[in-house]
Design a protein that fits this description.
Order of helices and strands of chain A: HHHEEHHHHHHHH
Shape of chain A: globular
Strand order of the largest sheet of chain B: 6-7-8-3-9-10
Distance between the termini of chain A: 25 Å
Number of helices of chain B: 8
Mean pLDDT of chain A: 86
Radius of gyration of chain A: 23 Å
Low-confidence stretches of chain A: none
Oligomer: heterodimer
Largest sheet of chain A: 2 strands, antiparallel
Largest interface: A-B, 19 and 23 residues
Order of helices and strands of chain B: EEEHEEEHHHHEHEHEEH
Mean pLDDT of chain B: 86
Distance between the termini of chain B: 40 Å
Shape of chain B: globular
Number of helices of chain A: 11
CATH class of chain A: Mainly Alpha
Radius of gyration of chain B: 18 Å
Number of strands of chain A: 2
CATH topology of chain A: MetI-like fold
Chain lengths: 264, 252
């Protein structure tokens, strides 16, 4: 029998309840006189109206952008970088797996580059691409690509030998076996890792926007800092959290809908 | 063309992980011939090398010494003419039952309308036509093995190798699938090789029984079990042979 905490509605209710407690606690802490913490962390009742008062626009003069534009541009950057990294890592992982020698020579390089924090690539990206979308996409790509390539190689090794034997026994050529057996076998594992890496990619694009770019959600927070406007900072942080959560749910939906199988 | 698979003095060793010099022989000097319409059952205790022998016969492994000939040519690689049903089902989890059975045709790039009848016929043969839209995770163990069998039947191989396909199934399911195998043999007129450690199954299904024994395994006994008294599991001859073989395997 399904336990109560396994029920979808109950899980949603608990999440809703915990958020409600957080917001109530946050609001109440502001009523305790001149609390210095609430000057840095204004409660939702204080920073949310900023959104409506400014007609959903943030920034100064020609650099101002609506909140929708900021969300869209950040999402385009992160999803472009992740998509390129996903496709690229599968292609490179497959190519490296074709030969033991190429794996022996290239995997150590990948293993050294993979742990480099995406933000470390910002100066190089700015030199190569200047200030613009390409910089952000490059940073997300660098943050995800190497880890995913190593994961692809590991997933290829885990494909059950009997699958390959069966396909060969049914008359499959090497190319067909790669296309019809190995790639479908590895896709769920690589996509799961892509989803787990989304947080890293999300942080990378925000870091890029905070350090060099002129638009996007990261810039909302930086504008707040430059204007000493803690309401704007908190608003930016909340939108970053909610958008990140929404994208993670979308990726989970894609995973469950299109890459649901397991070869184990 | 009459299919013929012949092993001449085939031995197989695997190298130990410790070093190159430690070669551990699994099979030694196997001489075996599978002619058209033969149903050979290979019997032996667990770990004797029965599955290794079957993989050699299918071209999945290469002999260390000796040669295997298929239709008078040296067997060098895996061929669709010798199909194999593995001990554990090898259904692709991202394909439904029908797509799994049609997988061999898809690999060859055939169009669906060209193979639909063949796939349906195989599914009907194993009694799973109505389950063709289900995915492997929705099937029971017995159903999965039947799909694997249907997939091997659909590709029109000359020889069917079966590596203990019923070992994980309960007795009733096992008997149903044994009946199914006999009807497949009758309808498709295929040569079959079944590896099993179940003595009753080996006598009941086979026309020729091969007993593997020892380390490295050698063919200890080859016997003709095609006569009608061996097709009744309760006949005196059947029970006597079963007891004799079980004693031999236990003693081993």
């Amino acid at each position: 029998m399904e336990k109560i905490y396994e029920r979808k509605f109950f899980r949603f209710f608990c999440g809703f309840l915990s958020f409600s407690f957080l917001i109530i606690f946050w609001e109440l802490s502001d009523n305790q006189g001149n609390n210095p913490v609430t000057q840095v962390l204004p409660p939702p009742s204080q920073f949310l109206p900023v959104l409506f008062e400014s007609d959903f626009k943030i920034g100064l003069g020609s650099q101002s952008a609506t909140i929708y534009q900021s969300i869209t541009i950040t999402l385009i950057r992160v999803l472009s970088g992740m998509s390129l990294a996903f496709v690229g890592s599968i292609i490179v992982g497959l190519l490296l797996s074709l030969s033991k020698w190429s794996e022996l020579f290239f995997v150590p390089i990948l293993s050294v580059i993979a742990p480099i924090a995406p933000i470390a690539w910002v100066p190089i990206a700015l030199v190569i691409f200047g200030i613009g979308n390409l910089t952000a996409i490059f940073i997300v790509f660098m943050g995800v690509f190497f880890t995913l390539t190593i994961a692809t190689i590991a997933e290829i090794k885990r494909v059950p030998t009997n699958y390959i034997f069966t396909a060969a026994n049914l008359g499959g050529s090497k190319f067909k076996i790669w296309k019809s057996v190995i790639i479908p076998s590895i896709l769920p594992g690589v996509f799961t890792l892509l989803r787990l890496n989304f947080i890293a990619a999300w942080m990378a694009v925000l870091a890029a926007e905070m350090t060099g770019l002129r638009d996007g959600l990261g810039t909302v927070v930086m504008t707040g800092r430059n204007l000493f406007n803690s309401n704007l900072i908190l608003l930016g942080i909340c939108i970053i959290g909610i958008t990140g959560f929404a994208v993670d749910r979308i990726l989970l939906f894609i995973q469950n809908k299109f890459f649901w199988w397991s070869t184990n | 063309m009459k299919s013929n698979l012949k092993c001449i003095n085939v031995s197989k060793y695997f190298r130990n992980n410790n070093g190159f010099k430690n070669q551990e022989y699994v099979l030694k000097d196997i001489k075996l011939e599978i002619k058209e319409n033969d149903f050979i059952t290979i019997l032996g205790p667990s770990g004797t090398g029965k599955s290794t022998l079957l993989k050699l016969l299918g071209g999945f492994l290469k002999p260390s010494t000796g040669t295997i000939y298929f239709n008078n040519k040296k067997l060098e690689k895996i061929t669709p003419l010798i199909s194999m049903v593995f001990q554990e089902h090898t259904l692709f989890p991202w394909l439904n039952v029908e797509e799994n059975v049609a997988f061999g045709f898809d690999l060859k790039g055939l169009r669906r309308k060209d193979y639909r009848d063949k796939v349906n016929e195989s599914l009907e043969q194993v009694g799973l036509f109505n389950s063709k839209n289900l995915f492997p995770h929705q099937l029971s163990g017995g159903m999965k093995q039947r799909v694997s069998l249907a997939r091997s039947l659909a590709v029109d191989s000359e020889i069917l190798l079966l590596d203990e396909p019923f070992s994980s199934l309960d007795i009733q399911l096992r008997r149903n699938l044994q009946k199914l195998l006999l009807s497949i043999k009758k309808d498709y007129k295929k040569s079959m090789v079944l590896v099993t450690h179940n003595v009753e199954e080996a006598i009941l299904l086979g026309s020729k029984l091969i007993l593997l024994e020892g380390k490295p395994a050698i063919i200890k006994n080859q016997m003709d079990v095609s006569c009608s008294s061996y097709s009744d599991r309760y006949s005196q001859e059947f029970l006597a042979l079963q007891k004799d073989l079980e004693t031999k395997i236990e003693f081993n």
